[in-house]
Amino acid sequence: MKLLFKFFLIPFFLTAVLSCEVHLEDNTRILVEGTIKDQDNMPVPDAKVSVHTRRGNFSGGENSYLLGEGYSATDGTFSVISFYNKDEDFAIEVAFGETYSTYVYKSNTLNFTPVNLTFDLGTVSLKKMASFNYNIVRISGESTSITYSFRYIEGFCLESFEGETLSEYQSACYQERFIAQTLNDNNPDYEWLLQVPLGEIVEFTYSINDEPEITEFITINEDNYDFTFSY
Amino acid sequence: MTLRSLIKTFWFTCISLFCSIGFAQENVSENESEITSKSSFLDSEGRQRFFAITAGGHKPFTSGDNFMGDGLEGKSGIDFKVQMYIYKHFFIGLATGASYFDVKNQELVGSYRKSRIAENYIYLGYEFLPTEKLRLGLNISIDSDLDYKNTGFSTSDIAEQHDSAKLNRYGLYLHYELAKHFMIYLDYSYNVSTTDINVPSELKDFFGKGKYSTIGLGLVFTIGSRDLISRFIN
């Protein structure tokens, strides 16, 4: 048994642990370039462009490893020099905190090397984000309940590529999100904040005491949009 | 066989030669040194040596519009060299060492913090004798092997990444003789590393060559009092 442990299990364990290490391509650098514009076609300066590779970890989640990073210039152009990794989850993220939406270019690079070692993302459109602060307040006294929902566009765009071909099945760009909740005597009031692209419409649907649903459309036209609904 | 393993073999051979030939000639050398010989800027029989072994440290300085000049900052380095005088003061040498750098601009080179260049090279040179105590040497590398080990990534799961290069090194040194076989040295070198890094065409100039200079200080031990060819001729 000891022999089995020594000659088989230890090498197996070491291989399993060491295989979690990320091995970057030696003697290789790539260039990531493009231009960032907002929904009004205006350049977005100072957006962060980061190149990542991802790996599963022991807990079943994913770790993200930074290979290169840079920022867009005043005219919105960016040019980031990075290491390269051949991996199923090679990603380039364009982000600007909560001010703008986030764009992710994801590619399987196991069998793919870009032409001239350059990932040209072209024009990346980021949407300026607004904070939609909603506050549902009960003023009608006890035993009144409300069921409501918000339908809105999230500020995230993932484009997944197989080589140079966009995989629409694996992509998810500015998708519609839906949240719903019921408030009653146990929990009569609720306040929350959503990040929504500026200029988008939030669909608010509610029903008080199981009466027919009513829908309101709210255009987010301010950076900080406060919405209070009393029932 | 790589240059690195070749240099290791040469080191071993050189040390063996020190012991066998160098010490075996010591009695002859002492007698020779008593002979008042003709001394000039180019040659001096009395100051002829067979081997010189140097050990020291250096400070690297990056320069130029390239990935080293714009992206790295020199920190420190170590040097070990053995040079054998082939004929009079003409020598061939083997060197191994390392230079350490910090990354000062990750946007230009990638997201890592430190780089270590392992340097192995063969060099040729000539030593002049400007004064009684000083030796002025000029040398140039003829074959080389550089290994850039890049470390300090955002996570310890990425241990290191390697780049390789060839070195063109132009060196100058001053040896000050404290004793017959013991000196201190001060040296300067200008280094151009021609990398093997694959990059987009617009970055070829930036990553193709890295330039750095070094200023070093250390100790020199010499062995023997005759050059290699003289040992066979005379």
TrEMBL record, chain B:
* Signal peptide interval: 1-24
Protein's UniProt keywords contain Signal = yes
List the SUPFAM superfamilies hit by this protein, alphabetically.
Answer: Porins
**Keywords assigned by UniProt?**
Signal
| Name of the protein in its database record | Outer membrane protein beta-barrel domain-containing protein
Query: From what organism does this protein derive?
Result: Winogradskyella psychrotolerans RS-3
